[in-house]
Prior knowledge:
Elements: H1 8-29, H2 33-59, E1 62-65, E2 76-79, H3 81-108, H4 113-132, H5 136-154, H6 160-190, H7 195-201, H8 209-226, H9 235-241, H10 244-269, H11 277-296, H12 301-327, H13 339-373, H14 384-387, H15 389-403, H16 409-427, H17 431-459, H18 472-490, H19 493-507
Antiparallel strand pairs: 1-2
Helix pairs in contact: 1-2, 1-4, 2-3, 2-4, 3-4, 3-10, 3-13, 3-18, 3-19, 4-5, 4-10, 5-6, 5-10, 6-8, 6-9, 8-10, 9-10, 9-12, 10-12, 10-13, 11-12, 11-17, 12-13, 12-16, 12-17, 13-15, 13-16, 13-18, 13-19, 15-17, 15-18, 16-17, 16-18
Amino acid sequence: MLSIVEQFPILVVAISLLSAFTILIVGWLNKKSCCFISIATILVQLVMAIFILDHVLTKGTIHYWLGGWKPPWGIEYLVDALNAYVLVIVLFLGLICALHSKSSIEHELPHKSDTFYTIYQLFIAGLCGVTVTGDIFNMYVFLEILSISAYALVASKGGIALRAGFTYLVMGSIGACFFLLGVGFLYVITGSLNIHDLSLLLPPLYGNRVVQAAFIFFIVGLGIKMAIFPLHTWLPDAHPAAPSPISAMLSGIMIMVGLYALIRVLFTLFPSYYNYGPILLILGLLSMTVANLFAFFQKDLKRLLAYSSIVNMGIIATGVGVAAYILSTVSSPSEAPPEEASLAMAGALLHVLSHGVAKAMAFLGSGNIHSSINTRELAKMGGVGRDMPLTGYSMSVGLLSLLGLPPLIGFWSKFLIIMSVAMAIRSVGGVVIIMTFFLLLFNVIYAASYYLRVTKVLMMESGAVRTHEAPFPMVFSVVVFALFCIIGGLFPIPLIRLAVRASLIVLGGG
């Protein structure tokens, strides 16, 4: 018989769906209560996620069979150290962004709070569902719930946001079609949709053209969801158009959940067979380099942060690519993954957390500034951080964490990835790893130029109209994130150990 905690994976998803329906009904009677229902729901989900993570780390993987049907016939929710880690990040960011929305949505979407929180709760349900499911078709269903909610949230402000939402809809639908084709191809060949069952059935079929096509479809489909170059074109328009809490969630966690899905699919179903390390390395390095060039010349703060998200997505993809590349060079990677591979994957997973928190804070901070002076143009923000000190200093902490300045948490995630590549030069060698090291180092240093420029504009220059600090819920959110960046950077060992534990699940050593 399952314990209470082992029931939580289904409850994390179910109560979010129930909350969306409740908010829709209650919103007809009292719109002001919608925010509190959403915050309370996500808080309960976060508490559940923390208990799930503790159970997984101390007692092992959770298997939940929907309706009591055993896999592969039924849908299985499977939670290990990897997705328990991701689930906590998703709900932590979701909660803080919901707190911020208490005031920001009143400013950005007046009279639409009931529909906003209904869709936002569906958005959270989709994120949780993608994370906990062990069934690949169920993953597609939740990706669609997540994506359709995101399209609506991006377009919710109307006007030019409708165009950004439509672009996102078109690109997202193409990505979903590719992913669904991949799922369909695997089902035709194997007759199974359970991810673990597929991992047992596929090895003898890796040479099959249909399986190879499915592999390509997964990379393209999830590449669009991740906004990896050159499949990133929807993201620079979607971020500026969306309400600030949604920009924070899109950049902080949604594209990262796409990365989680890619890691889960590739490393579980195709472990090192197709040698996809170089593919991920090329995509990651191109994303960093191209997005860095675009980010440097942006005058709109949210658009600059959007390109920065693509840069950091490239950094994470590079870390994952390095791990995959190293695995492909050893004879039995599943038995004892090399230290360099574990370090690269741990750095990538830690960067999911550090980037998620810091970038969410930057977007929420930009929302605070926009609500006070009604502009996103950097040229008109000179010195605004001095009039809004809590927002200004918190944003500066977030930007410096994105830069990788010690002792903030962003330093440790970048340090682990760079160190793993340096170690791989000695152990693996080759032109690919050497070029990866220098391109990665160049892009990390280059990105510092525009992070420092934004910090200088906010805190040192002049030119902005005199203003005042944002409302308490909006300030509280950015301060919480800033404190997390500082405390996580000063005491990184527990977070690094957690990332290493999750990386070993991915690489077959845990």
